[in-house]
Amino acid sequence: MTATDHGRPGEVRRPLSHMERWYWICDQLSPLNVVARVRVAGAYRAEALRRAAARLAREHPLLRVAVAAEPDGGRPRFVAARAAGLPVRAVRADGPDADRWAREVDEVELATPLDWRAGPLARVVDVTRGAPGTADERHDLILTVSHVVADGTTALELLRRLVELAAGEATPGAPAGSSPPRAPVPPAEALLPGRLNGVPRAAHLVAAVLADRVAAVVARPWRLAPAVPVAPTARRTRLVRRELDAGQLAALVDRCRRERVTVHGALAAALATAVAGTEPHLRPRRVCVGSPVDFRAELVPPVDRRDAGAYVATVPSYLRVGPAADLWTLARAAFRDLRRRRRLHHHLALVSLLRLMSPRSVGASARAVALVDRAGPGNVCLSNIGRFDFPARVGSWELSGAQFVAGVSVSGYLVATVNTSHAALHWNFTYIDGAVTGERAGRIADEAVRALLSGLRRDGAPLPTGTGGRS
């Protein structure tokens, strides 16, 4: 298709959709970035990476846009970015400082919004260790993208492509390929199916909203309350990282098969247990855990995962945590609830609902933000994209540790992002500083890993090797 409004074919020049506008408003209150990272063992020059970043922008229309709006913040629309290509920032780390990339994510990338007025809505960081040109040279490549144009799957797909392009620029003959620019894709709302579960989408929306409201009233779920109230414009996302190694991951997958639950169900159960465990006076009751659902395949026509954009909607599950509920009881409850909600297309109803609740501008957003604080499904969130087959080698480079991290902004207080890549399960926890203390976030991360690994122990056997390391 060609762009709407003005602009050449192949460029995105149109108003932001209701979902894009909501993310854009959230980002103005507090940065709403999605960050992907991979470690590259190998040598290349900075110029090769800059050329690759420029080629990546040429391939994706949404990496060539900025956002313009009226003086009062209304009528936001995509316009051309002022600069071509993606900016690349170089960071030199000390030889033994393997965690420097994580500090860059925590201190800079999650805290600094993309310049939406100028664009583009993505940037690259190259953290380098080791002597250049030697076998010790290592790079941590970090791609930060605005949630307006990306979700976790998008960020990792773009990073994968960036590595391919950089390898081609750095090493003649490497499989970078020559891809034509991808065609612009309409906003997600324009591709929603007209009928859901056999009824018109509008009627389905009303029924789904009423059903969710009744379920919430019956469940009376416990929600994570801020230790200290933090104004929307003062919210700052921080990062805690954990990881399951190959042995732990294999044990988890095997046990989930035997229990007939998904890995996501087990992770949700462990997260609910961990969050409740930091409230010593909390009686047995239901904990709300939100699960973002990828709906690319349900659109008409389906959207390829290589196309940039945000294609997730978060649905809540209410998990009853208490002494009588072990990990696998909770996991089965989470699995059944999420399967039911997906079958009833509750996630697509939430996308439709944004047409009614997305505010016109930041100045008109106070009521919507208060509603999200009070009842939004992302209060505690588990964003699990499952297995992501990031290549282990591109050209002469060895790749490892591919993972993603999500900013929280005003959508909740704690988000756990998960992907399985390079024979490890990467489990990153982001939280609103102050609303959740760093000490509590660390305890939740540790307790979630401990609850999960304890659930894998059988007949008094020791836990699987490792204790949830960091990559």
Automatic annotation (TrEMBL):
Pfam families: PapA_C (PF16911). It catalyses: 2 a mycocerosyl-[mycocerosic acid synthase] + a phthiocerol = a dimycocerosyl phthiocerol + 2 holo-[mycocerosic acid synthase]; 2 a mycocerosyl-[mycocerosic acid synthase] + a phthiodiolone = a dimycocerosyl phthiodiolone + 2 holo-[mycocerosic acid synthase]; 2 a mycocerosyl-[mycocerosic acid synthase] + a phenolphthiocerol = a dimycocerosyl phenolphthiocerol + 2 holo-[mycocerosic acid synthase]. Residues 236-391 form the Phthiocerol/phthiodiolone dimycocerosyl transferase C-terminal domain. SUPFAM superfamilies: CoA-dependent acyltransferases. Its EC number is 2.3.1.282. InterPro entries: Alcohol_O-acetyltransferase, CAT-like_dom_sf, PapA_C. Keywords: Acyltransferase, Transferase. Belongs to the acyltransferase PapA5 family. PANTHER family: ALCOHOL O-ACETYLTRANSFERASE 1-RELATED (PTHR28037). This is Phthiocerol/phthiodiolone dimycocerosyl transferase.
